[in-house]
Specification:
It contains twelve helices and 19 strands. It is an alpha/beta fold and about 425 residues long. Strand 2 and strand 3 form a beta hairpin. The protein is globular and about 65 Å long. The structure holds zinc ion.
Length: about 425
């Protein structure tokens, strides 16, 4: 196997040092190391982080290969510094059987740009009527540990309770898309003074918070693990904070776009800003940043949601919910958390690598960058600035909300088991 000598990388932003990657692991760390015939990568000025892990990616395959495929989505992941992604279950067909999750898992292995961990649906066809074959998916070659009806909420409290009880047998977790369906019928954007003025149906914060509160109580009641997807309101942060204070086994994620963008953007009527849950107020953004900084919110997850041109380039009410996220996540986290001094690089590694791997029970990723660990890492240049050009994306879709925006930082290289998937800021293949 190949050998790489990385010169002068700042591990977690610390003092520059060298790393030798050999036979898929970090073989040596220290100053003045020798290449010994290996390829040299000059990492002067670059921060080295463990390979990022996304707990919430939509790869769209099978079924919507016009939006994204496992191949193109994992390319985007590698370009964003990710070495592992969890692929959400709302495909066509839905990933609710061992057969479908194994198909996605196999496609990930064939693509080879990052490891793909399929998420299993909680209910058959995401219909919210009866439980899917959770045990069969857990026992399959894909070894599913994260279950979610994401895109839809497991609204029925009896089904949610049963799912929470069931996944305990194999140390799984239910990742809830918290959206009270009746309170959000036809909802288009955050409910507030602005939604009234724009004439778009409002999406009240309580529709998210009520489900999170109920699920925290249910998880505590049955003694199971709960993960809350894409927390978007200040009230949700408070509920999760309270659950953690009580010692309940609840984790939560925030998406990069909810750390940066606000509902004011809906005033453009540009559906590029239409997302589920919706962009909220500046006060919510501040609470999300504070919650991520103090550990109330455990992780950043992208909710990378590719859509073809025709599903986004239409009037707001008809447009699909969702935006791209993989290729810009680290830059947004730098802009919103690192540059303002809310997180250091060790904090970023915890929230974008260690913690998501722990929640997803992925042993092969999210390890500390130490001698002997799998050589999954990203080299990142925090000093450069770039203007986002959708045409430069390697995703099959172009629905980034950051087009034309200047962002800090760039992924220079991503290594998966010691082999580069991205080098000099470009895909290796
Ligand atoms: Zn969702």
């Amino acid at each position: 196997m190949s050998t790489y000598l990385i010169k002068s990388a700042a591990i977690l932003g610390g003092e520059p040092t060298d790393l030798v990657l050999r036979d898929g692991v970090v073989a040596e760390i220290g100053p003045g190391l020798d290449a010994a015939g290996g390829e040299v990568v000059d990492a002067t000025g670059l921060v080295a982080l463990p390979g990022l892990v996304d707990l919430h990616t939509h790869l769209r395959e099978p079924g919507r290969e016009d939006a994204e495929t496992v191949e193109t989505g994992t390319r985007a992941a590698a370009m964003g510094g990710f070495t592992a992604v969890h692929a959400m279950a709302n495909t066509e067909p839905v990933a609710d059987t061992a057969g479908v999750v194994e198909q996605v898992w196999r496609l990930g292995r064939e693509a080879g740009h990052c490891d793909v961990y399929p998420v299993g649906a909680v209910t058959v066809g995401l219909q919210g009527e009866r439980l899917a074959e959770l045990g069969a998916m857990a026992d399959s070659a894909a070894r599913v540990r994260v279950f979610s009806d994401d895109g839809k909420c497991v609204w029925d409290p009896v089904l949610m309770r049963r799912a929470l009880e069931y996944v305990k047998a194999f140390d799984g977790v239910v990742a809830q898309h918290a959206q009270e369906p009746r309170l959000t019928e036809g909802a288009q954007m955050n409910e507030g003074e602005l939604s009234g003025r724009l004439g778009l149906a409002g999406w009240p914060a309580v529709a998210e918070e009520a489900v999170i509160a109920r699920d925290c109580l249910l998880a505590a009641h049955v003694g199971s693990r709960l993960h809350v997807c894409h927390v978007s309101t200040a009230g949700s942060v408070e509920i999760v904070r309270d659950a953690k204070r009580k010692g309940w086994d609840v984790t939560a994620e925030v998406c990069p776009h909810h750390l940066l963008l606000t509902d004011e953007l809906a005033a453009t009527y540009d559906p590029i800003y239409k997302v589920n849950p919706p962009l909220r107020t500046a006060a919510d953004v501040a609470a999300l940043r504070a919650g991520l900084a103090d550990g109330t919110i455990d992780i950043v997850a992208t909710d990378h949601a590719p859509h073809p041109h025709e599903d986004k380039d239409c009037e707001w009410a008809a447009a699909a919910f969702g935006m791209l996220g993989l290729e810009t996540a680290l830059s947004i986290v730098q802009e919103t958390m690192v540059d303002p001094g809310l997180l250091d690089w060790a904090g970023v590694a915890e929230r974008m690598s260690h913690a998501p791997a722990r929640i997803g029970r992925v042993a092969e990723h999210g390890q500390r960058l130490e001698v002997g660990c799998p050589a999954n890492l990203v080299l990142y240049d925090p000093a450069v600035r770039r203007v986002v050009d959708p045409a430069g994306s390697v995703s099959l879709s172009r629905n980034t909300p950051y087009a034309g925006r200047e962002l800090p930082g760039r992924v220079v290289a991503t290594f998966l088991r010691g082999v580069p998937t991205v080098l000099n800021g470009a895909l290796v293949r």
